[in-house]
Design goal:
- This protein has about 110 residues and is α/β, with parallel strands linked by helices.
- It has helices at about 20-30, 75-85; strands spanning about 1-10, 50-55, 60-65, 90-100.
- Strands 1-4-3-2 form a 4-stranded mixed β-sheet, covered by helices on one side.
């Protein structure tokens, strides 16, 4: 598994091109079953899953954690990877991990 880390203001900054729509939709359905271990809610419903790209048998999934030093990061990575690999059409998963960065407050 390959894990890349970036910082993002919000996971919606990940939206972009999507290939192989059928497999992307199926993968997003599987990821909806992955729960944030601390919040007990789906990482898809929480908006933690951003762009998903499936090319051939390889999936790239962008996931934004709620904090930079998320203590449950490795569990979320494992759960996302395991969910993706339940699809017969996917045998390689790359995770692009990010942390939500709050926008700076403007002072009046």
């Amino acid at each position: 598994m390959i894990v890349t880390e970036i910082l993002a203001e919000h996971p919606t900054s990940f939206t972009g091109s999507v290939s192989n729509v059928h497999n992307v939709d199926r993968l997003r359905e599987r990821l909806a079953q992955v729960l944030d271990p601390e919040l007990g809610a789906s990482i898809v419903e929480l908006g933690m899953v951003g762009d998903i790209d499936v090319s051939g048998r390889r999936a790239v999934v962008h996931v934004a954690l709620t904090t930079v030093g998320c203590p449950l990061r490795s569990q979320i990575e494992r759960d996302v990877r395991e969910a993706a690999l339940t699809l017969d059409d996917i045998d390689t998963v790359e995770l692009v991990m990010a942390s939500w960065m709050p926008k700076p407050r403007r002072h009046s």
